[in-house]
């Protein structure tokens, strides 16, 4: 049971949202919005874990949350999928949903972020880590930064500039700090 606790906590709202969509596919306002915000929250959480671990090495909560990296990472895809599912249902057909890709606010998430989140979710397992080798796996999972850029662009274009400023600006600052610390320790070694 303990093994599945992380999945239960991160995905119970996902299941509730999915059931409510199947129950009444004509009223999707809250699922559309909240799934998007939860996906953004999990994305910021997963992206902040490594920088915060390095900047505050004694922070126990970060180390505890780090044990649930896979569950948190997959949650980004799961909740984004609910958000996209609502858009597909709202569009009326798959074809009209696909035609959204021609509009700037959606192109980055449809062609870049969602495919990347899918690949990262599918390859998040220990089995994939073993099959790909840790170095290649890590290289592949660095694509998350490309997906992050796609989400930031999407949010900015749909008028969520405050969300970008409040959540992603501090995140980019801690990410740059992390890279700075890494570069400093690498140059000290060589
Ligand atoms: C195939 C990919 C996606 C499509 C087609 C899509 C579509 C949309 C649409 C139509 C809106 C409403 C725009 C408006 O109100 O003018 C929206 C808003 C939003 N999207 Fe996406 N989205 C996608 C992926 C994502 C992803 C991956 C995230 C986050 C990880 C995300 C987060 C949001 C947020 C936070 C909002 C604002 C919600 C609100 O308060 O209205 N979207 N999206």
TrEMBL record:
Keyword annotations from UniProtKB, A to Z: Iron, Membrane, Transmembrane, Transmembrane helix, Transport
Signal peptide (residue range): none
Keyword hit for Membrane: yes
Keyword Hydrolase on entry: no
Single annotated GO MF: heme binding
Ranges of residues in domain Ferric oxidoreductase: 40-147
Xref: Pfam families: Ferric_reduct
InterPro entries: Fe3_Rdtase_TM_dom (IPR013130), MsrQ-like (IPR022837)
Topology in the lipid bilayer: Multi-pass membrane protein
GO CC entries: plasma membrane
Residue ranges of the TM segments: 5-23, 35-56, 76-100, 106-128, 140-157
Localization annotation: Membrane
Name of the protein in question: Sulfoxide reductase heme-binding subunit YedZ
Organism encoding this protein: Candidatus Bodocaedibacter vickermanii
């Amino acid at each position: 049971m303990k093994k599945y606790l992380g999945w239960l906590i991160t995905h119970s709202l996902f299941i509730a949202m999915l059931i409510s969509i199947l129950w009444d596919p004509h009223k999707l306002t809250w699922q559309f919005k909240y799934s998007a915000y939860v996906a953004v929250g999990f994305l910021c959480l997963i992206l902040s874990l490594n920088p915060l671990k390095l900047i505050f090495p004694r922070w126990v909560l970060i180390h505890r949350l780090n044990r649930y990296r896979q569950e948190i990472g997959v949650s980004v895809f799961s909740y984004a999928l609910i958000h996209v599912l609502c858009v597909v249902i709202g569009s009326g057909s798959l074809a009209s949903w696909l035609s959204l890709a021609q509009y700037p606010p959606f192109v980055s998430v449809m062609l870049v972020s969602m495919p990347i989140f899918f690949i990262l979710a599918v390859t998040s397992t220990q089995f994939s880590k073993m099959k790909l080798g840790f170095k290649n796996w890590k290289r592949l999972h660095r694509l998350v930064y490309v997906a992050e850029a796609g989400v930031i662009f999407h949010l900015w274009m749909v008028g969520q500039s405050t969300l970008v400023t409040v959540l992603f600006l501090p995140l980019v600052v801690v990410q740059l700090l992390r890279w700075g610390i890494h570069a400093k320790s690498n140059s000290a070694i060589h």
